[in-house]
Amino acid sequence: MAQPMGFEQRVYVLTSIASATLAPTVAELTAGTEITIDLPQPVNFGGRQNYADVSDISTPQNKQQTGTIEIENLEFDIWRPTVTPVAYPALANNTSYFLVKFEGGDIAGANPAAGDKADVAKVQVGLKTDSATPRGEARRTRVPMGLTAAIAWRATVLA
Q: What's the pLDDT score for residue 101?
């Protein structure tokens, strides 16, 4: 399936990453599965930042400083083609994976190489369920995931 205009993200599913910093190697990426072709929309890692009030009593206006960050669990749709599905078999229910996503321009060449940047999340796939899909559109499946570790933002791919 062709990706929508502006879709400049590539997403891989890996079963393991040896680095404690969640920086994948080229070999780990090659051993993984790229699921980009089965994504109708980009995968987004989301979160919320709260703020702490640090004003003193004599200040007429509140002063804020950043507080804790809360990362939200993921949930996204995948296409469920009847011929050669990629993402559906790569994301088994109740299984742990590493989700590696490269945003547009973060892969210098045609394939990930040492020095490229990726966002990496360790996830636990929940129970995949059918998504309500309008008649005439390709079938979709919703994939919920729980984050099981802090996201490694802008991790550098290792040789």
A: 96
- Residues 6 or more apart from 3 whose CB is under 8 A from it? 36, 37, 39
Q: Provide the token pair at 36.
A: 């980009």
Q: What is the pTM of this model?
A: 0.84
Query: Tell me: the pLDDT tens digits for 40-63?
Result: 999 998 777 777 888 787 777 778
Q: Please say whether the beta carbons of 115 and 75 come within 8 A.
A: no
1-45: pLDDT as tens digits: 455 555 689 999 999 999 999 999 999 999 999 999 999 999 998
**Looking at this protein, which amino acid is placed at residue 91?**
L
The Cα 91–Cα 95 span in angstroms is: 8
**Close Cβ partners of 132 (under 8 Å, ≥ 6 residues apart):** none
Angstrom distance (rounded) from CA 21 to CA 153? 10
88 phi, psi to nearest 5 deg: -55, -50
Question: Which residue in this structure is represented by tokens 């993200």?
Answer: 9
> Are the CB atoms for 91 and 13 separated by under 8 Å?
yes
For residue 129, give the 3-state DSSP assignment. Answer: strand
